[in-house]
Structure formats: C-alpha cells, structure tokens
Design brief:
This protein is α/β, with parallel strands linked by helices. The radius of gyration is 29 Å and the shape is globular. The protein binds a DNA duplex through α4, α10, α26 and β19.
DNA sequence: GTAGTCACTATTTGA
DNA sequence: TAGTGACTAC
C-alpha cells in the first residue's frame, strides 16, 4: 500500500458549509447533518484534514455506534491519508473502551481478562438472582429487570443510589417490583465475582476508571486524545456523554470536540439515547460553532419535500431546512391493499414493474417495515417471483445455541470464574451433573461471594457427583493449558473436539444436527481466519490485536451479524426501518403504513413516543433516492385475529403535490394481478398448515397395530411412514410435511396415530 | 430424560 | 397465530 497516491483535492469535493465543518479544527464544533447531506464525507475528511495539518493519528479519538460505521470511516480516511488512517483511535464506544479496560481493569477490581456478558448472559444471571431471592418470576420478568438495571447504569445510578432514588423506587412500586433494587445490587456483585462486564459496564467501568484515577489514568488519556469526534451524537446516552466530558473538560483543555448528528433521526430513545445531550452540549460548550448541512444529495425533490412535511409536525426539533437541487423526479406512490396478503402481492408486482421500467437491479431496492414479523409475506411473494432477497435482522450467528455452547467452553477456559459459561457447559453434553448438584454449587457460591468454579473444592459432594466434577475440572484444565501455549485456532479446534458437542450432534443423526455442525465449522473457519490474519508491520491498525483465543473472544463479543461478510451480489434488501438508518437505495418500499403499526400501538399514548415514530418514518422515506412507495392494508392478521387498521396519520401529513395522482387513497382497490403479470394465482400462506383430512375423520389406531412400513396420520405432523420401532416402543416416523426435520421419534403408547389404507 | 401440554406474550435493537 | 419457557407424566 506504500506510495499510494494521496488525494489533496478533497477539500474541493465539499460545499461551502461542509468545507467549513471540515476545516474548523479547534474548539467545540457541532455539525447537524440532515439525511443524505454528506455526513460521512465530512466526518472522514475532517479527520484526514487533522492528520494532514500535523495532528498525529493516535491523538484522534473518533467514536461511532456501529462497527460498520467505524470500518467505513477508516477505509475512507485511508483514501486521503493512506495507511496512517489505521492509527486513528476510531471505533465504537464499546470496543475502544473494552480495549482500554483490557489493560487497566485491575485498577478497578476486575481481572484484565474479564468476560463480556451479552444480553442473554445478563438475563440469565438476573433470572438466577430472582430465583435465589424467592421472588415470583412472573412478576419479576428477567428481561424487564435487566433493562431496568441497564437504564440505571446508563444514568450513572449505582445500586446504592438506586435504593435511595425516589423516582426509581416509585416506578418499581407501581410495577409491583419493589425488590428491583436488591436484584440490581446482587447482580453487580455477581458480575464482579464472575469477572464479567455487561455491555453497560464497558461504559460504566470506563467512567469509573477515569473518575477514580484522575492523575495517572485520566490525565494520560486527556493528554493523548487531543481531538475528539462523536458520530450519531443523538444516539448517545447520559453515561456516554459523561465519559466524553471526562476526556475534554478539564483545566486548560483545548476543548477540541466535534459532534455530528441529526436530532430528526433520533430513533433509539427506547434504549436510553437522549436528545437532551444535544441541548446539554450547547450549555457545556457555549463557545461552540454550529454547522448545518442542509443540502440533500441523495433524493429527488418530491421525496425531500414529503420528508420535510412530515417532520415539521414534530414540535421538538432544531430548526433546519433540508433542500435538494434534484428538482422533479418521481412522485410518491401510495398503495392500498385489502389484506396483508394483497399488500405482499402488490409490492412484489410493483417491484417487477419497476425493475422492467427503470432497469433497476435488485440491490437498488429495499423493503422496510416497522416490525420484523412483517417480513414473511414479502418473502413469500419474492420467492414466488424468483427475486433474490436477503432479510437482515433476526438471530445472529453468534446467538445460535451451538455457537454459544462452544464459545462458553472457550470463555470458561479463559476466565474460569465466568458463571454463565460454567452453567451452560457443566452438564452439556450430559455428564450426569444434575440440578441438585448445580443448585448446591450455586447456593454456596452465592453465600461465599465467589464464583461457582472457585467454590467447587470446598463442597462436600457425594462420591458420584464428585467424580463427575473432577472429570469436568480436568477437562477444562486441559483447555486452559492449551490456550496458554497454542494460538486461537489450535485451541478452538482442540476444544471443539474434546468437548464432545460435535459427537453429540452427530449422534442425533438429523438435518438440524448437521446444520449445527456446519455452523461450528463456520465458526472454526472464522477463528482460523482471525488467527492467520497477519498483522501489518507498517501502518499497523491500532485496533488490531494479538491472536490468542482471549482476543478472539473479545472481538466477537462486540460483533454483530451486520459486521460480517456482506457479499450479497444482487438481492433485494428487507429490514426494519431501524436497521436501515444510514443506508440508501434507489427505490424504497415502506410497508404496513397503518395506525397501530406505524406508528406502533405502543407509542400512541405518549406524545414523545409518537414524535419518535414520526422521526422513524422520516428516516424510512429519506432512505430513497428516486422511488418511494408507501403501502398499507385494510386488514391484517395480528396475534391471531383479523385487525382493521386505518391508514397511518403520517400519510395525511404528506402534501398531495408530492403524491402520484392516479393511485389515490380513495380509489377502489384493485383485485387480482396487474396486467403485466397475466393470471397470477394467489398462493396459500406457507404457515397455513392444512391438515391432510378433516379432523372429524380422525380416529387413532391402537398402538399395537402400528408396524414398520405403515403409512400413518398424525394430527399435527400429517402423513408419515413408520421407519422403525425400537424395543421400548418408540417409533421413528418420517413425515413428508416437515421439511426441516422429517424424522420424528414418537412413543407409540402415548401418540395418537391413525393407520391409513 | 424427554415428548407433549399449558399458559403466556406479543416494537424497534447496538454493543 | 406462533414462539417460548415451565411443568408433567411416564
């Protein structure tokens, strides 16, 4: 990469306002960046400009919310300043702080090789505490408690402050969960003795580290980070802002801090983000310079107009006028369907038509929805029409059971105090360590305030349990030994082999089992890649790390699916509106634009939340460059019932001038397919599992009559063939209907099966 | 230990 | 409706 031509014309690529934002390097700066206004360009060129003005790359701290944004940023800085771009401290809040804590955690009572708990781990820990306090798990819903704790941490409310905070206590009282403070306290203890930090801790402990070590630590970083930048500032929470202030508010600070964001695109208040931070920023830095990027380069004028019309209905916003010089273009299309099924069909038809008429590629098109559950119907029609698509969201690779199981073994090998990992693998695969033994360990660990692993020695078990535990400890110790002397890949391979999980999956002899093994192999491939990825000598990425298993674990615990290979060649994109933030497509379909859905029924009662829904809708339509289509259905299935929803109030907020006239909302809905497609037959929903015959005809045959080779009927699984019957009268039956796992093992004495002629 | 049953719930989601 | 977690009955 040496000798790469460095662009020096980058300043010419900017408009006046953008250029000012890029070249105003000193003092506090606020950039309000409307959709499509070249925000990323400003951000990256500003960093490039800093470097070219003589600031060392490692003196720049650039915080983002997603790995993807950070990666993109670094890549784009590189095109201007070359390899030194990778010496910039650019990354997510969580990943950069995790890196620092990896070195400094011992100063605040954590081991440096602490585990990072994901949301599931936290929930599971909370659940156990609820159980140990003998509270009703129905009242004390572990998810709700976890978000409560998360919210407290994000507002710098420690357990002690929580117990004295009237607001929190009152809210808990109203929710009939008065013991929440106690759970919080125990949860914090549990994390400490497990050597674990949850996602909020990565921020909170970072704050603590700086706050409690003003001389040696805080000052060090204050001196290092001469220039601070925060992307998507409207998404920061209180705690994140407090940390930022630790870096730049102190005596004789140059106060070189630049925040970039758009209050109109703040859509994450439900996870603690607060627009108050923008107002607070103006208070904390009264000398700040503000630049508003108002020219939209992305969309044509009807789209920009409509977006403005909508957002103007919000009262709380920073005044700005988004405009475009791309006058004209296509008007907004509104599509009314009778049912959700028809909506699916009409959208798919429109996609076909657009592709033909405007020669759009699949990757130019996106379907955006408010809730992930809406994707199914569109999936069905696109599949039917043979249009490739990709659905984003849903279960990530690292949340799959088999992956979490393997990773739990790895975690335990690196940090044996990790209780969540311990619980996960202690009896998986089965090694005869049952609930009783586990409960005993858990209680004693709790009583002595140590991790489960640490208290194993001090407990009297019966001989059998004891032997099993000794074997388990031995196993983990071999993993630990391997981890010390081998690289991540070799260690991982060893753990996968010796843990017995793959053998167990193999023995299941099912398609699912095989799929899981494939996933584990994919994980191993990923680890191999990680291990062999050579570190560059020159221009080494400041964020690249060693290649041990511990490093791998840290990397993946902060990674999500969207960060992984996005080698989708040419597919339609389907995702929630939230997930689409920051992306753009030539043609966007926003579907389900109905009252109770978009805006969500959950937000109708609160004006603030309604405004957030409106911002979300604003984000949705501003993703479009040239075409936007808003669709809604008269009725749709929600929770098993047909629900009739009115068109969304947001639709009325769009001026008629920007809406395609021929498809007005008043027009009678069209039935049947548009002409271009000929006689298309509506298909039956894939989830409507039709029974092979009427239930009334069903009369189970006596178990004794059922023999190998019989065709049988099962009420739930349909028609199947008996493949074998073992000595305990368990039949293996192959059902045609169940494509995912055709073979079921069914106990004849209990199952209701009818022999068919 | 496990298949089946019951009761419950139901946005958005990054790290 | 559909997915999940807890319980139950062998």
């Amino acid at each position: 990469m040496q000798g790469k031509e460095l662009t020096s014309q980058y300043l010419d690529e900017l408009n006046d306002i953008q250029r000012k934002a890029v070249t105003t390097l000193d003092g506090p700066v606020m950039v309000i960046a409307g959709p499509g206004s070249g925000k990323t360009r400003v951000l990256t060129y500003r960093i490039a400009h800093l470097i070219r003005s003589g600031v060392a790359p490692w003196q720049i701290l650039a915080l983002t919310f997603t790995n993807k944004a950070a990666k993109e940023m670094k890549a784009r800085i590189e095109t201007v300043v070359g390899q030194s771009a990778y010496k910039v401290w650019a990354g997510t809040f969580h990943s950069l702080f995790a890196r620092i804590l990896r070195v400094e955690a011992h100063r605040i009572g954590y081991p440096n090789d602490f585990t990072i708990y994901d949301t599931d781990d936290s929930k599971s820990a909370v659940k156990e505490i609820i159980k140990s306090l003998k509270l009703d798990p129905k009242v004390y819903n572990n998810g709700a408690i976890r978000s409560r704790i998360s919210s407290a941490k994000s507002n710098l409310i420690t357990p002690r402050l929580y117990a004295a905070n009237e607001d929190y206590l009152n809210q808990d009282a109203v929710n009939r969960r008065p013991m929440t403070y106690k759970i919080y306290e125990k949860y914090v203890n549990k994390c400490i003795r497990s050597g674990a930090m949850d996602f909020d801790d990565l921020l909170l402990q970072m704050f603590k580290l700086l706050y409690q070590n003003p001389d040696n630590i805080r000052e060090k970083y204050q001196r290092q980070f001469k220039y601070l930048m925060v992307d998507e500032f409207q998404d920061t929470n209180f705690l994140q802002y407090e940390i930022l202030k630790q870096f730049c508010i102190y005596e004789n600070s140059p106060r070189n801090v630049c925040i970039v964001g758009d209050d109109a695109q703040s859509i994450y208040s439900f996870r603690g983000a607060t627009i108050e931070n923008i107002l607070q920023f103006e208070n904390d830095f009264p000398e700040l310079q503000t630049f508003k990027l108002e020219q939209n380069y992305r969309s044509t004028s009807h789209i920009v107009q409509a977006a403005n019309d909508i957002i103007n209905n919000n009262t709380r916003q920073i005044q700005k006028k988004i405009w475009t010089d791309r006058i004209g273009g296509h008007k907004i299309k509104m599509v009314k369907a009778m049912t959700e099924n028809e909506e699916g069909k009409m959208v798919a038809d429109n996609i076909v038509e657009q592709k033909n008429r405007y020669s759009l590629a699949n990757k130019d098109i996106a379907i955006l929805y408010r809730t992930n559950a809406q994707s199914r119907i569109f999936e069905e029609y696109l599949r039917r029409y043979n249009i490739p698509y990709k659905i984003y969201g849903g279960l990530s690779f690292y949340q799959r059971k088999e992956i979490k199981d393997i990773i739990a073994y790895m975690r335990l090998s690196i940090n044996s105090k990790d209780d969540e990992a311990f619980k996960r693998v202690i009896n998986y695969p089965r090694r005869g360590i049952g609930q009783t033994t586990l409960a005993k360990i858990s209680t004693i660990a709790d009583d002595n305030d140590v991790s489960m692993w640490e208290c194993l020695n001090s407990i009297d078990f019966n001989v059998r349990a004891k032997q099993k535990l000794i074997d388990f400890v031995k196993l983990i110790r071999t993993f630990q030994a391997k981890a010390v002397q081998a690289d991540a890949y070799k260690t991982a391979l060893f753990i996968v082999k010796k843990s017995g999980i793959v053998d167990l999956l193999k023995s299941e002899n099912s398609i699912e089992g095989q799929a899981r093994i494939d996933n584990i192999n994919a994980l191993l491939d990923g680890i191999q890649e990680f291990t062999e990825d050579d570190v560059l000598d020159e221009g080494e990425d400041i964020n690249k790390q060693e290649r041990t298993l511990a490093d791998f674990l840290q990397t993946i615990s902060l990674m999500t699916d969207q960060d992984k290979n996005t080698e989708n060649p040419d597919t339609i994109t389907m995702m929630s509106v939230h997930a689409a933030k920051g992306l753009e497509y030539k043609s966007v379909f926003v579907v389900g634009v109905e009252e109770n859905l978009f805006p969500s029924y959950m937000s109708l009662s609160s004006p603030d939340q309604l405004e957030e829904e409106r911002r979300l809708f604003y984000v949705a339509i501003t993703r479009a460059e040239e075409h936007i289509c808003l669709s809604f259905a008269n009725s749709r299935y929600q929770y098993g019932n047909v629900r009739y929803n009115d068109p969304s109030r947001f639709l009325e907020e769009i001026s008629n001038d920007d809406v395609e006239a021929n498809i007005s909302m008043k027009k009678k809905p069209e039935f049947g397919p548009p002409k271009i497609l000929g006689n298309f037959k509506p298909l039956k929903s894939a989830t409507q599992k039709s029974l092979p015959m009427d239930v009334g005809d069903f009369s189970p045959s006596p178990a004794a009559d059922i023999k190998v080779g019989h065709k049988i009927l099962h009420l739930k699984f349909g028609i199947g063939e008996v493949l074998s019957i073992d000595e305990r009268n368990v039949a293996t039956i192959k059902f045609d209907s169940n494509i995912d796992s055709p073979e079921k093992r069914i106990m004849l004495q209990y199952a209701r099966l009818q022999i068919m002629e």
